[in-house]
Amino acid sequence: MSKKRIHSSLPITAAQQALFADVPNISLVGLMGSGKSTVGRILANTLKRPYFDSDEEIVSRTGASVPTIFEIEGEAGFREREAKMIRELSEKQQVVISTGGGAVLREDNRAALKAGGLVVYLSTTPERLLVRTRYDRNRPLLQNPDPLGTLKKMHEFRHPIYSQMADIIVTTGSGQVSQVAMHIIEAISKKIAKDQGLT
Ligand SMILES: Nc1ncnc2c1ncn2[C@@H]1O[C@H](COP(=O)(O)OP(=O)(O)OP(=O)(O)O)[C@@H](O)[C@H]1O
Ligand SMILES: O=C(O)C1=C[C@@H](O)[C@@H](O)[C@H](O)C1
Ligand SMILES: [Mg+2]
C-alpha cells in the first residue's frame, strides 16, 4: 500500500499571501526529526509554492532508499548526490526546499541555499529529536545502540552552523507541526516588514 500523504495548508489572509510575492526560495535546515519535511510541505501548500525535499528527490531519482545509498556508496557517495541536488534545487525560483539534515556540512551547499533565498532553521533538543525519530529505520546515522548520544554530538557540532546561516530560527517544542509552519510565515512576514522599513 502506498504511503498516505497529508497535504494540509493553513488559512492565511490575501494580504499575508501578497507579502510573499517577492520572497525568493525558503529553505529549511535542521537536524533529523526537526520537522523539515513535514513542515516544509505544509508551508509550500499554504504559500502555493512548489515543494522539493532533497532526500525525497535523491530517492526518487536513484530508485534507492537513503539507507541503501549509504550501504552501497557510503556516506561520501550520498553527500555527493546531495550536493548536486542542493545546487539544482537552489537554482529554482520561489520554491520551498526541505534539505537533508547534513546538507549544511558543505560550504558549497550553504552558499547555494543562501544565494537562493531565505534559510529557516528548525531547532529543538536532542531528546525531542529522539522521540520523533526512534522508530524510523530510514535514518542510517541513527541506527546504532546510542542514537541519543549521536543526536547530542550532532547537535553540538551542527547547531552553530545552522544558527549562523539562518535568516530565521524557529524553536519547536511540544506544539503541532501546523503551528511551526504558521510561526515561520509570521517570522518571515515580520522580517519583510522590517526590511521594508515598515516597523
Ligand atoms: N514540531 C513537531 N511536533 C511534533 N512532531 C513533529 C514536529 N516536527 C516533526 N515532527 C514529527 O517528527 C517526525 C520527523 O519529522 P520530519 O521527517 O519532518 O523531520 P526531518 O527534519 O525532515 O528529518 P530528516 O532530516 O531525517 O529528513 C515526523 O513524524 C513528524 O510528524
Ligand atoms: O542529518 C543527516 O546527516 C542526515 C539527515 C537525513 O535527512 C538524510 O539526508 C540522511 O539520513 C543524513
Ligand atoms: Mg526530511
UniProtKB/TrEMBL annotation:
<protein>
    <recommendedName>
        <fullName>Shikimate kinase</fullName>
        <ecNumber>2.7.1.71</ecNumber>
    </recommendedName>
</protein>
<keyword id="KW-0067">ATP-binding</keyword>
<dbReference type="InterPro" id="IPR000623">
    <property type="entry name" value="Shikimate_kinase/TSH1"/>
</dbReference>
<dbReference type="GO" id="GO:0004765">
    <property type="term" value="F:shikimate kinase activity"/>
</dbReference>
<feature type="binding site">
    <location>
        <begin position="33"/>
        <end position="38"/>
    </location>
    <ligand>
        <name>ATP</name>
    </ligand>
</feature>
<keyword id="KW-0479">Metal-binding</keyword>
<keyword id="KW-0963">Cytoplasm</keyword>
<dbReference type="InterPro" id="IPR027417">
    <property type="entry name" value="P-loop_NTPase"/>
</dbReference>
<keyword id="KW-0057">Aromatic amino acid biosynthesis</keyword>
<feature type="binding site">
    <location>
        <position position="79"/>
    </location>
    <ligand>
        <name>substrate</name>
    </ligand>
</feature>
<dbReference type="GO" id="GO:0008652">
    <property type="term" value="P:amino acid biosynthetic process"/>
</dbReference>
<keyword id="KW-0460">Magnesium</keyword>
<keyword id="KW-0808">Transferase</keyword>
<feature type="binding site">
    <location>
        <position position="55"/>
    </location>
    <ligand>
        <name>substrate</name>
    </ligand>
</feature>
<keyword id="KW-0418">Kinase</keyword>
<dbReference type="GO" id="GO:0005524">
    <property type="term" value="F:ATP binding"/>
</dbReference>
<comment type="pathway">
    <text>Metabolic intermediate biosynthesis; chorismate biosynthesis; chorismate from D-erythrose 4-phosphate and phosphoenolpyruvate: step 5/7.</text>
</comment>
<dbReference type="GO" id="GO:0005829">
    <property type="term" value="C:cytosol"/>
</dbReference>
<keyword id="KW-0547">Nucleotide-binding</keyword>
<keyword id="KW-0028">Amino-acid biosynthesis</keyword>
<comment type="similarity">
    <text>Belongs to the shikimate kinase family.</text>
</comment>
<feature type="binding site">
    <location>
        <position position="158"/>
    </location>
    <ligand>
        <name>substrate</name>
    </ligand>
</feature>
<comment type="subunit">
    <text>Monomer.</text>
</comment>
<dbReference type="GO" id="GO:0009423">
    <property type="term" value="P:chorismate biosynthetic process"/>
</dbReference>
<dbReference type="GO" id="GO:0000287">
    <property type="term" value="F:magnesium ion binding"/>
</dbReference>
<feature type="binding site">
    <location>
        <position position="37"/>
    </location>
    <ligand>
        <name>Mg(2+)</name>
    </ligand>
</feature>
<feature type="binding site">
    <location>
        <position position="101"/>
    </location>
    <ligand>
        <name>substrate</name>
    </ligand>
</feature>
<comment type="function">
    <text>Catalyzes the specific phosphorylation of the 3-hydroxyl group of shikimic acid using ATP as a cosubstrate.</text>
</comment>
<dbReference type="GO" id="GO:0009073">
    <property type="term" value="P:aromatic amino acid family biosynthetic process"/>
</dbReference>
<feature type="binding site">
    <location>
        <position position="139"/>
    </location>
    <ligand>
        <name>ATP</name>
    </ligand>
</feature>
<dbReference type="InterPro" id="IPR023000">
    <property type="entry name" value="Shikimate_kinase_CS"/>
</dbReference>
<dbReference type="Pfam" id="PF01202">
    <property type="entry name" value="SKI"/>
</dbReference>
<dbReference type="InterPro" id="IPR031322">
    <property type="entry name" value="Shikimate/glucono_kinase"/>
</dbReference>
